[in-house]
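Q: Structure tokens for this one, please.
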Amino acid sequence: MNDLQHPAFPRLFRRTDRSRPSGPDPRRPDPRWLDASARLPATDGGFLGPRHHTLPPRDLRSRPQPHDRDDTDGRCGLGPIGLHIENGNTPRCPDIVTFFAQTAAFEGSQTTICDGRAVWDLFDDPQKARWSQPMTVERVLPEVLWKRYLANEHPAISHPDEVTMEHVLQFKAAVPGQDFEQHDDGALTYRLTVNPVRPSALGGTDRGFANAVLGPSHNYQPPRYAMADGSPVSADEIEEMRALAEKVTHEINWQDGDIAILDNTRVMHGRRAIADANRNLFIGMGMI
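A: Here is the predicted structure, written as tokens:
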């Protein structure tokens, strides 16, 4: 189902000329799109599945960095991806996410979108009370992964080998809600407290269910979720939320050249199963 006129859904830009360009390989990113994406201050990135890439910003760091859907070794596969906000389990979650479909799949691979406010409206009173609590995301991060992430986020360093505990403490102080325990092998038990229900960063006071609870974790250990009252978020509860969100989930059936812009603090997105891997989808993201 498509309903892209809803104000919360992605702004979809579709060109009228559907012909494929001649000349250079059309699967190579057009520099004009890369330049346009640089106007958004991208903060995170990674390969997101078969021919699903980040747009490298021109004047900021362009290296892919690990996040929940980093798929540099193909672990994301061809199956469906659950609804989530991009990088929702990381300390710096982007406000805006943009997609560019350079080559759309012939069938399948639709991007799913779900307005978190519509999910909130389906909640009964006990669900609203429960999900209005802060939620802690906890998992163990191997040393190679957390150092790679910090090297991309800390302004004073650019390589994982440069990371020291001082940089870790500086980053912890700069972004509230983080805590960790370091292990003898260098790994961290990392905890991040987030609000699973939130207002949009783009304005308004209405709240929505916008988080990564329903999403995947291909690059990291699957997280453990617990509410502020100490109760865990069970697998059954996650499936209950998934079924509820599906009732108000819509699809983007991509065509070549489409661009979509999402409010990543309100609209969750995912993907239907890939039936045609001959696709080339780029993603860019940033803060406002």
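A few notes: The two ends are 30 Å apart (CA to CA). Residues 1-6, 20-75 have pLDDT under 50 and may be disordered.
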